[in-house]
């Protein structure tokens, strides 16, 4: 897959309510740079040159003024995550045929995993980076009593990037009711498209709470 036919959407438009604080978690400093910055660098190292970063509208003017890297552009997010992804899709050049969608709160993604997800999507149409669950999974309808235990050998924890042929993710987004959709692979699944699994990394953590940011800094320093 030629680099110019592959693009990325880095979703960094959330409010970070669970993290707390006035500044969204994706804009906090991690090793001297905003959290989302490291995702941009990882995609660039993976050879992806068309990158759209979706951010809160409040941050957009400053970021547009500051960003000088060719191929990197910022657009405003929407009310829900899927609105933000749709805004990102609209901003990608028409020649982009494979789209990798990544959470800007996952700064430790490896370029090699990005490449694997893109290759898988080019072959199968849709690919999900994931890791096997380390824990036993219990199902409960009311949160007070266990209804069932799911064998962990069949439980995969979804990560990002999630990569797609552009035609597939655009069709999926237009074919179903997106209310309640929690990731892009789910949209593809509900629209009837098979989704391949790409082995991810347990270090590809999502920064959700303050402790996650501290752990990410430790892992990033070890990586260097």
Textual characterization of the structure:
There is one protein chain. With 224 residues, this protein is α/β, with parallel strands linked by helices. It has a seven-stranded mixed β-sheet, with helices on both faces. Strands 2-3 form a two-stranded antiparallel ribbon. The two termini are 29 Å apart. The chain is globular and about 55 Å long. It has a single domain, classed as Spore Coat Polysaccharide Biosynthesis Protein SpsA, Chain A (Alpha-Beta Complex), CATH 3.90.550.10. The chain has seven helices and eleven strands. Helix 5 crosses helix 6. The mean pLDDT is 93.
Number of helices: 7
Strand content: 15-25%
**CATH C-level class:** Alpha Beta
Separation, N- and C-terminal Cα atoms: 29 Å
The strand count comes to 11
Q: Specify the overall morphology.
A: globular
In helices, the fraction of residues equals 25-40%
- Let me know the average pLDDT: 93
Strand order of the largest sheet: 5-4-1-6-10-7-11
The CATH homologous superfamily is called Spore Coat Polysaccharide Biosynthesis Protein SpsA, Chain A
In the CATH hierarchy, the architecture is Alpha-Beta Complex
CATH fold field value: Spore Coat Polysaccharide Biosynthesis Protein SpsA, Chain A
Structure classification:
alpha/beta
Count of all domains: 1
């Amino acid at each position: 897959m030629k680099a110019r036919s592959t693009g990325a959407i880095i979703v960094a438009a959330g409010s970070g309510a669970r993290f707390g604080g006035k500044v969204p978690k994706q804009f906090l400093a991690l090793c001297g740079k905003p959290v989302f910055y490291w995702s941009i660098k990882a995609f660039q190292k993976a050879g992806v040159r068309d990158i759209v970063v979706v951010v809160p509208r409040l941050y957009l003017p400053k970021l547009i003024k500051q960003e000088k890297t060719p191929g990197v552009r910022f657009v405003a997010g929407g009310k829900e995550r899927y609105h933000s992804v749709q805004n990102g899709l609209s901003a990608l050049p028409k020649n982009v045929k494979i789209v990798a969608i990544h959470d800007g709160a996952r700064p430790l993604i490896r370029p090699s995993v990005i490449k694997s997800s893109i290759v898988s999507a080019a072959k199968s149409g849709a690919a999900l980076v994931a890791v096997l669950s380390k824990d036993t999974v219990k199902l409960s309808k009311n949160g007070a009593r266990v209804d069932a235990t799911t064998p962990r050998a069949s439980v995969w924890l979804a990560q990002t990037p999630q990569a797609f042929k552009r035609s597939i993710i655009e069709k999926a987004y237009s074919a179903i009711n997106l209310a309640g959709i929690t990731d892009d692979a789910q949209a593809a699944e509900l629209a009837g498209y098979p989704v391949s699994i790409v082995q991810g990394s347990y270090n590809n953590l999502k920064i959700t709470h303050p402790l996650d940011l501290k752990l990410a800094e430790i892992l990033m320093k070890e990586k260097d």
